[in-house]
Amino acid sequence: MKNQVLKVTNLTKSFNSGAQEVQVLKGVDFSIYEGEFVSISGPSGCGKSTLLNIMGILDTPDSGEYLVDGIQVANMNSSQRAQIRGDRIGFVFQSFNLIDELTVLENIALPLKYRGDSFEVRQARAKACLQKVGLADKGDLFPNQLSGGQQQRVSIARALAGDSGIMLVDEPTGNLDSKNGDAVMELLQALNQQGTTIVLVTHDPRYAGMAHRNIQLSDGMIVSDGVKSASEGSQNLHTSVEVD
Ligand SMILES: Nc1ncnc2c1ncn2[C@@H]1O[C@H](COP(=O)(O)OP(=O)(O)OP(=O)(O)O)[C@@H](O)[C@H]1O
Fold it and tell me: Where are the transmembrane segments (predicted)?
């Protein structure tokens, strides 16, 4: 039996929209096991990003529990939260969220600085991660000198740098054309095959089909949570993608 790495129980979250309170998550339960590749899909506005932000410890739920490695996040103080986020969770945003003033290598190494790794460790790790995403020769460039697809690969390298083993990925292809989107998804699939646990939010059924398990969210509730049978397997895109 694989280790349970993330667990959400009866999670709720509301936002104030003008005078109205809108309940976005209405009691969500599931667990993520080490090595899984899970997609979360559902209609626009159903709460996918809200859920992923809570799982990335970027936001807090109103009620319910969230456990990382069996530890209750709600009981942690802010420095413990920052530590577990740095040690256990890599986050990939739709809009890359790279810092324009830093080089590619500096962007990747930055999270390691926060957790106190030495300069040498940061450099070595950042270079290794850049190589993993196929951009070894781009380290000294700035983000705006790269294509969107390349920038997303850099943001994946940054999420890998902490060696957290878990990657939460929010619509990684949303700002990319289909060629670069496919290349990013193939990279995520390869990283999962090498052992990274991935939770992917996507509205694209083709990309959701690349995961081994799909959670369908609708109006703040899980309406299905299915692991594919062995015969279904996980889909490949079967494209020969050239990454530019
Ligand atoms: N910070 C916030 N303040 C107020 N409302 C918010 C906030 N964040 C999200 N919402 C609202 O919560 C609902 C769910 O948003 P969320 O981004 O989680 O949906 P989603 O399923 O990821 O949508 P999409 O696929 O369009 O990205 C939406 O109605 C959104 O307007």
Answer: none
**Short-list 52, 76, 144, CA closest to 104:** 144
Using the mean position of ligand 1's atoms as its centre, give its distance from the Cα of residue 53 in Å.
11
Q: 188 with 172: CB under 8 angstroms?
A: yes
In short, whether 50's Cβ falls inside 6 Å of ligand 1 is yes
Q: What is the pLDDT of residues 40-97, one digit of tens each?
A: 999 999 999 999 999 999 999 999 999 999 999 998 999 899 889 989 999 999 999 9
Ligand 1 touching residue 95 (CB < 6 A): no
48 pocket-lining for ligand 1 (C-beta < 6 Å): yes
Query: pLDDT tens-digit profile of 135-186?
Result: 999 999 999 999 999 999 999 999 999 888 999 999 999 988 899 899 999 9
Helix runs in 89-204, H state only? 104-114, 119-132, 148-161, 178-193
Q: Which of 15, 16, 26, 55 to mutate to test the pocket of ligand 1 (most atoms within 8 A of CB)?
A: 15
Q: How many CB atoms lie within 10 A of CB 23?
A: 14
- Per the listing, tokens 């902490």 go with 162
